[in-house]
Design a protein that fits this description.
There is one protein chain. About 20% of the residues lie in helices and about 25% in strands. The chain is of the alpha+beta class. It has two domains: about 50 residues, SH3 type barrels (Roll); about 70 residues. Strands 1, 2, 3, 4, 5 and 6 form a six-stranded antiparallel β-sheet that branches. A two-stranded parallel ribbon has the order 7-8. The longest helix has 13 residues. It is elongated, with a radius of gyration of 17 Å. The two termini are about 25 Å apart.
Length: about 140
């Protein structure tokens, strides 16, 4: 196990920004922490993408931080970034470009049909064909947790 300092990356399956805590198996897997909830989990190197503009901080000294959960503000303002699983249909129409109330209700019905009544990956949203999901996901306003 090689300890490295924290850098910002995007966890592709859910669209959540995470911090890399350490690397394992010669860099094949990385231990990451969600910047919004503080959850720690392992991700394969193919599931993460370095956020543009973030610096490679491998040579930096580790900082002495207080242990425990830390709340980190996302780059997109909180009121414009939503967890698709917790949003109401009305909220979806306010935040998602090109989504009306009929489509928002259809998104929530699709969510209810999923195992655990939750989306686990952003790609599951592409089952709703009336929305240009590539454009919506590129904007970074939706994430899944």
């Amino acid at each position: 196990m090689t300890a490295i300092s924290v850098q910002d990356v995007l966890y592709k399956p859910s669209g959540v920004k995470v911090e890399i805590l350490s690397e394992h198996d010669e860099g094949e897997y990385k231990m990451v922490r969600s910047t919004t909830t503080g959850k720690v989990f392992f991700a394969h190197k193919g599931q993460i993408e370095i956020v543009e503009g973030s610096e490679d901080k491998k040579d930096a000294k580790p900082s002495l931080k207080r242990r425990g959960r830390q709340i980190i503000q996302p780059e997109i303002p909180f009121e414009n970034r939503i967890n698709i699983n917790g949003a109401t249909p009305e909220r979806l129409t306010q935040v998602l470009k090109g989504v009306g109330i009929k489509t928002a209700v259809e998104i929530k019905e699709l969510q209810q049909s999923m195992p655990g009544e939750r989306f686990t990956k952003l790609e599951q949203l592409k089952a709703i064909t009336r929305v240009d999901w590539d454009e919506v996901l590129a904007a970074g306003v939706v994430y899944v947790e």
